[in-house]
Write a sequence for this structure.
């Protein structure tokens, strides 16, 4: 069961959905009080069982979606505050953002990272290593020209020339949570391992969704939510306990990130 609602115009819930919780409603109004409604990206709040989930959905054909890592001086941005400052200096407005994958202690992406067509970190094809990044299969989220893709690392490696040519922006992470509608078979439905998690996923229409479970959830339950509630056919895990999403009340609490994925308000044509 889930309780979706819009940040600006609330829909009356159906009898099956029930009513949104007042505390969650208040948090959303606080988070969105400074945003203008005239944009295509769609941010909703859900309750799935005992977990609150934020999901930002955008269309790569019409919305501005890209990844960010460093500022002009080569220093990792690290926080949504610094990313927002950078974007405002470029006359851009950030609508939502989240961390873009697993990184090392130097805030470097652990795997492939492409920004504006330039490969800044190489594809990581290592397997049989410790950590979620190496849980198989892992994969790459790609933003091409008006289209997004999620592909297995082995597929990217086997067709590197093709995928590299398509990639304007890309980030590698792991594991893949959903592949062609099938949940990763390594996920245990009865696993007690529950933490905050975030992911990026695609549906059959090619829409991109950034999603974060804001309180603990297992890999399997999060994958079920992404598939059954958000109708995602492919999903890539981004990271765990440190993950956050802008704009939420806790967006700027916690450690610095490596790269980030952001969705911006599209500038009106003059």
């Amino acid at each position: 069961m889930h309780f979706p609602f819009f940040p600006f115009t609330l829909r009356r819930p159906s009898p099956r959905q029930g009513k949104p919780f007042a505390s969650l409603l208040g948090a959303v109004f606080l988070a969105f009080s400074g945003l203008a409604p005239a944009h295509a990206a769609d941010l909703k709040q859900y309750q799935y069982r005992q977990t609150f989930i934020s999901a930002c959905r955008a269309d790569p054909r019409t919305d501005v979606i890209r990844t960010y890592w460093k500022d002009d001086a080569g220093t990792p941005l690290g926080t949504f505050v610094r990313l927002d400052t950078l974007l405002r200096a470029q006359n851009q407005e950030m609508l939502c953002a989240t961390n873009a994958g697993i990184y090392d202690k130097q805030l470097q992406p652990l795997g492939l990272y492409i920004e504006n067509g330039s490969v800044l970190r190489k594809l990581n094809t290592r397997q049989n290593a410790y950590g979620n990044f190496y849980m198989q299969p892992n994969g790459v989220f790609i933003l091409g020209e008006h289209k997004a893709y999620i592909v297995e690392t082995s597929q990217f490696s086997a067709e590197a020339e093709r995928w590299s040519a398509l990639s304007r922006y890309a980030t590698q992470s792991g594991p893949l949570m959903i592949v062609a509608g099938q949940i990763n078979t390594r996920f245990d439905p009865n696993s007690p391992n529950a933490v905050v998690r975030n992911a990026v996923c695609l549906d059959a229409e090619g829409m991109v969704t950034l999603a974060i479970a804001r309180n603990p959830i297992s890999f399997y339950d999060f994958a079920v939510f992404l598939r059954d509630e958000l109708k995602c056919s492919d999903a890539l895990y981004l990271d765990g306990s440190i993950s956050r999403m802008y704009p939420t009340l806790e967006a700027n609490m916690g450690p610095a990130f490596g790269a980030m994925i952001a969705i911006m308000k599209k500038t009106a044509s003059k």
